[in-house]
Specification:
With 442 residues, the chain is an alpha+beta fold. It has a 4-stranded antiparallel sheet. A 3-stranded mixed sheet has the order 2-1-3. Strands 4-5 form a two-stranded antiparallel sheet. Helix 4 crosses helix 14 and helix 7 crosses helix 14. The two termini are 28 Å apart. The protein binds calcium ion. Calcium ion binds next to loops.
Length: 442
């Protein structure tokens, strides 16, 4: 049976029953833990394109304070009125509310995103290709060099390796290049009023207002993803309230600034809070005996070695504490021995694939090798019709294709490699379903 990852675009909080998930369990709660042993829900938060809202010219009604505050949307206006008294009852000041809601509109796009999560099946190797692309590794090394002094200080203070912090930064905002630029109060108010998880977003909105009231940031600078994740490492407001730190010492926890210091330190503080152990790996790649099954058993590395599970060098894995064996693509793909730190990463985003992505990206940023065994991606050959579709799509993208005949020759392989390189994928040249998937998406 093939392992599949259910990957969703957009930021966390995707679907399912929010009431059962506590935000204190994971920074951005994962709504649907894998239902079967081979299914993992993954949230990709890094590909969320920011977008700017064009100011709309609309007559503005007058709010009860005399300040123009109404959203121009009767339903949202009514909701805001009720919300203001709820917010006031938990200590949000009236002037903070007035400022926060000034100019807030009903944003149909965030509701649409919340309702129509685009979900598609994605293999673990596709996910890792994107999460740990050569470009992202290189950019991570550049970012780490550029911010080395800050990251060294953060590592010394919190005991979290700079490569891990950098990897989360890369996964969450592509090293600060995609912070999300939607007005936070507007997104959260719209989702609290009209989303599928009103209570959750209202809680986030209250936290956002508390942040504003504390003076960490002004409403105009408080931007985020459509679902309210903020700054370089995409903290939800409640997580920010609980874990964000002021590492620059200016009195404000500024995760939105061009300077990523506070955001990176907040991420390290968060990991430390959940038990990160410095000097311990998140996991290591291992070789396993053919046909072995592991389930969720935890054992010491020496016990695993006695069962034939060894490092890629053929030796017993060093003792980093109790570990379980993870085979994200089933027995045909790579196997990993994962330690306590792996579960700490999952506090950030509760998905094995996410933790694997962060861990592997950190290793690659540190100069480590790629995952060694080939994934079973080659076992998914294209049908004749799909081979022709692949040729048509490559041709349309301007790659040289002599004939749309479904025949794969040496030229085709070279052309596939060129295309793969152009999108930062591993240039394996294989005419696989994975390749066709890439062509369809790009
Ligand atoms: Ca600061």
């Amino acid at each position: 049976m093939r392992a599949r990852l259910l990957v969703m675009t957009g930021v966390a909080l995707l679907s399912g029953d929010l009431a059962v998930a506590s935000v204190t369990e994971s920074l951005r709660p994962q709504m649907r833990p894998g239902s079967g042993s081979m299914t993992v829900d993954v949230v990709i938060s890094v590909e969320v394109p920011g977008r700017s809202l064009r100011p709309r010219t609309r007559p503005e009604a007058v709010w009860d304070t005399g300040v123009t505050l109404a959203s121009g949307h009767a339903g949202l206006d009514g909701w805001i009125k009720g919300f203001r008294s709820r917010a006031a009852s938990v200590g949000i000041r009236r002037d903070v509310l007035d400022r926060a809601f000034r100019g807030v509109r009903y944003d149909p796009e965030v509701v649409e995103k919340d309702r129509n999560q685009s979900e598609f099946k994605r293999e673990i190797w596709d996910y890792l290709d994107a999460a740990v692309s050569p470009t992202r590794v290189e950019d991570g090394q550049t970012a780490l060099r550029r911010h080395r002094r800050t990251l060294d200080r953060i590592e010394a203070h919190y005991g979290v390796e700079k490569e891990i912090v950098t990897a989360i930064w890369g996964m969450e905002s592509t090293y600060g290049t995609r912070l999300g630029d939607l007005p936070l109060v507007q997104s959260l108010a719209t989702l609290a009023y009209d989303g599928r998880r009103g209570a959750f977003f209202e809680k986030q909105l209250i936290a956002a207002l508390q942040i504003l009231q504390s003076g960490d940031v002004t409403p105009d600078r408080m931007k985020g993803s459509w679902a309210g994740a903020m700054g370089h490492t995409q903290f939800m407001p409640t997580s920010y309230e609980a874990y964000a730190v002021d590492f620059t010492g200016d009195g404000r926890r500024d995760v939105w600034s061009d300077d990523p210091t506070d955001a990176l330190a907040s991420t390290a503080a968060y990991l430390k809070r959940f038990g990160w152990r410095k000097g311990m790996p998140w996991g290591v790649e291992v070789r396993v005996p053919r046909g072995a099954a592991f389930g969720s058993a935890s054992r010491m590395p020496s016990e695993w070695a006695a069962r034939g599970v060894v490092g890629t060098d053929g030796r017993a894995v060093r003792d980093h504490g109790s570990a379980r064996i993870l085979q994200p693509a089933g027995p045909a793909g790579a196997s990993f021995m994962v330690f306590a730190n792996f579960d700490v990463i999952k506090r950030y985003n509760n998905a094995d694939a996410y933790a694997l992505g962060v861990g592997h990206l950190a290793d690659r940023i540190a100069g480590g090798p790629s995952i060694q065994p080939s994934w079973p991606r080659g076992y998914e050959p294209l049908t004749f019709a799909e081979r022709k579709e692949m040729q048509r799509r490559r041709k349309r993208k301007g790659f040289s294709v002599e004939k749309i005949d479904g025949i794969i020759g040496p030229n085709t392989v070279a052309a596939i490699r060129a295309f793969q390189r152009s999108v930062g994928a591993e240039a394996d040249g294989l005419p696989s379903k994975q390749l066709l998937g890439l062509l369809r998406r790009s």
